[in-house]
Amino acid sequence: MSLQERDKKHLWHPLKQHQTHPDSLGIVKAKGCILTDEDGNEYIDAISSWYTCMFGHCNDFITSRVYQQMQTLDQIMFSDFTHEPAVRLSEELIKILPKNQNRIFFNDNGSTAVEAGIKMALQYYFNKGEKRTTFIAFENGFHGDTFGAMSVSGLSVYNGPFEDFLMDIQRIPVPNGENNEIIAEQLHQIISENNVVGFIYEPLIQGAAGMKIHKAADLNTILAICKKNNILTIADEVMTGFGKTGNYFASDEVATKPDIICLSKALTAGLVPMSITSCTEEIYAAFLDNDIAKGFFHCHTYAANPIACSAALASIELLKTQEIQDNIEYISSSHKEFSKKIEKHSKVSSVRYKGVILAIDLNTNAGRYGTLRDQLLQSFMNEGVFLRPLGNTIYIQPPYVITEDQLERIYTTITKILNSL
Ligand SMILES: *Cc1c(COP(=O)(O)O)cnc(C)c1O
């Protein structure tokens, strides 16, 4: 029996309506930018398996570093012990993170990085004897699937059923270049009517919303208001971190730096799960006290797993190389060229790009979870390219190591499929 058939007996997949979508493709191998299924078909991984494997799948440099680490120290509790991979990763991260960041806290996935960031912000004020209860977030943000992360995410199929159990959130629109004053007014009103803890945001590019891009200067206007009113700012860079936007972090481009930053996905280059919540020394200092209860009692068993830390260290080493930086630039300029061509297509309503991310909105009224999206996904797969449209938005987020030919294949496949619509 095939993997696809055996899968159906006991497995329950995420983000799936099994009644209408019973099949999951069996993948047996991944190397570089190529995925191989159980029938031997190959696909270019044009979205880096959810923005993770930016240095290609099974990267020899990273896997050899991880293998070395596996033979030395596999797992150790991080509440009472420390180890070289975690210490070194903190040193390397502080070198590349925005200058105001000084403390590294470990978690195990993007949602828990956000969860820890939310709890840090809440307890920061709790420890100072202030009762603050409300978070501000963008209308269509996505921050993960645990309760805190779900609360600050925009309402959708993800968090709809749990609406009655979510935290107190006030939502503001995303800047579009024309609504800065409206947002500022709304922000001031929210701040005056609520005890606001913090503002959480995906800087510059909102991933799950459909790779929506906003301007650094507009975001900065919001952050400056937050700073002025003593509201903590939490940048969710789970998707944007580690080179995606052209800089190490999206926040590099924004003048006002966040108090807290959440990182995951490309952090470990797609090898193993891990995440980090970093913060300023000022936030950390609010947890120092002779009273044990003022410490941060948040822990995940696998926090700072040495193997995951070694994957992160190897990937940061690669990210800093001239070769990878050049590739990022190459992908970015290729996207620019392709955008010019594809934006004139009759099936396209708008195109945007930033760093290695390119998004194409289709000229259609089809719903986000409609059949067009499924049809597109299947057509791309039939052509040997793995692209996973977000509703009616087709986007590319290729590994930094993608070859010229492979990138060209992705572009021509998109054009071909659009022509066939
Ligand atoms: C993917 C994502 C998350 C959630 O991360 P998980 O590892 O899937 O829990 C949070 N925020 C953003 C911006 C993401 O893209």
UniProtKB/TrEMBL annotation:
Pathway: Cofactor biosynthesis; biotin biosynthesis; 7,8-diaminononanoate from 8-amino-7-oxononanoate (SAM route): step 1/1. Coiled coil: none annotated. It catalyses: (8S)-8-amino-7-oxononanoate + S-adenosyl-L-methionine = S-adenosyl-4-methylsulfanyl-2-oxobutanoate + (7R,8S)-7,8-diammoniononanoate. Its cofactor is pyridoxal 5'-phosphate. Substrate binds at residues 50, 265, 388. Its main location: cytoplasm. It is found in: Cytoplasm. InterPro entries: Aminotrans_3, BioA, PyrdxlP-dep_Trfase, PyrdxlP-dep_Trfase_major, PyrdxlP-dep_Trfase_small. Pyridoxal 5'-phosphate binds at residues 110-111, 236, 300-301. The modification N6-(pyridoxal phosphate)lysine is found at residue 265. Pfam families: Aminotran_3. Catalyzes the transfer of the alpha-amino group from S-adenosyl-L-methionine (SAM) to 7-keto-8-aminopelargonic acid (KAPA) to form 7,8-diaminopelargonic acid (DAPA). It is the only aminotransferase known to utilize SAM as an amino donor. Belongs to the class-III pyridoxal-phosphate-dependent aminotransferase family. BioA subfamily. Homodimer. This is Adenosylmethionine-8-amino-7-oxononanoate aminotransferase. It comes from Tenacibaculum tangerinum.
